Amino acid sequence: MEATEQFLQWVEESGNIVFFGGAGVSTESGIPDFRSVDGLYNQQYKYPPETILSHSFYRQNPEEFYRFYRNKMLCLDAQPNITHFKLAELEKAGKLKGVVTQNIDGLHQKAGSKNVMELHGSVLRNYCERCGQFVSAEDILHSEGVPVCPVCGGPVKPDVVLYEEGLNQKTLQDAVFYISHADMLIVGGTSLAVYPAAGLIDYYRGNKLVLINKSATPMDARADLLIQDGLGNVFSQIEC
Predict the structure, then answer these.
(1) Tens digits of per-residue pLDDT, 16-75?
(2) 235 near 99, Cβ under 8 Å?
(3) Which of 58, 110, 185, 220 could form a disulfide with 204 if both were Cys (CB 3.0 to 4.6 A apart)?
(4) 34 known member of a binding site
(5) For the chain, where are the E strands, in sequence order?
(6) 104 is in an annotated binding site
(7) Residues designated as active site
(8) Does the pLDDT value for residue 240 go beyond 90?
(9) CA terminus-to-terminus distance, the chain
(10) Does 213 count as an annotated binding residue?
(11) Is 136 annotated as a binding residue?
(12) Final residue of a domain: which of 160, 185, 208?
């Protein structure tokens, strides 16, 4: 049986699916990923993106951080694509129990998904570090320099996990719970190179681990089904 046919059959048979996705989920919405040929890491900046998006750089050079952040991380006009919509449909049909994402763009929720575990936070949430006041992504985008709290004037930080920062433990625990109870785990659009997120598939106990990615990953040999294709090509064939 062809791989995609096998995938569709497993989706049909399964009642407890979890999806674990990375940047490749959103590239079809026009959001660049970090490691592909066209990704952010291959564009020229004064500092490498890994440096700019680190906790220490944010503390030491907040103005430069926000210049990069506004230009490259705030893709507020991006719309969900077929993969986002199909996942939301599967959840509505009661087959998909949760989405675990490394993305910070909020597109899963925009497509209608309810149970989304955002491992790396979201650009849509920003908080004053002094008083906790919420600040919208639109306000960040249209501010200049380092954005300040409209209430107390304190510095505002995006609710995203920067390099050198730990993941939210509650989000991580929820992800482990859903993955460990899934009868089918679909991993898509991620290089599975960033830990601790990549280690989450270790908690899957079933025999329907599907890896969908255009390029090879370090976990390919562990997959029960490997599909090297774009997510949109595969998910567009799902009938909910």
Answers:
(1) 999 999 999 999 999 977 554 444 544 556 788 889 999 999 999 999 999 999 988 999
(2) no
(3) 185
(4) yes
(5) 17-21, 96-101, 116-118, 121-128, 134-135, 156-160, 184-188, 209-212, 225-227
(6) yes
(7) 120
(8) no
(9) 21
(10) yes
(11) no
(12) 160
Number of structural domains found in the chain: 2
CB atoms within 10 A of CB 12: 10
- As a dihedral over the C-alpha atoms of residue 20, residue 135, residue 147, residue 127, rounded to 10 degrees, the angle is -60
Whether the predicted model's global pTM rises above the 0.90 cut: yes
CA distances from 29 to 24, 75, 106 (A): 10, 10, 12
Residues 135 and 17 in one domain: no
Q: What is the pLDDT of residues 70-105, one digit of tens each?
A: 988 999 999 999 999 999 999 999 999 999 999 999
User: Which region holds residue 121: left if phi is over 0, alpha if psi is between -120 and 50, else beta?
Assistant: left
Domain carrying residue 234 = 1-31+78-120+167-240
Q: Is 55 annotated as a binding residue?
A: no
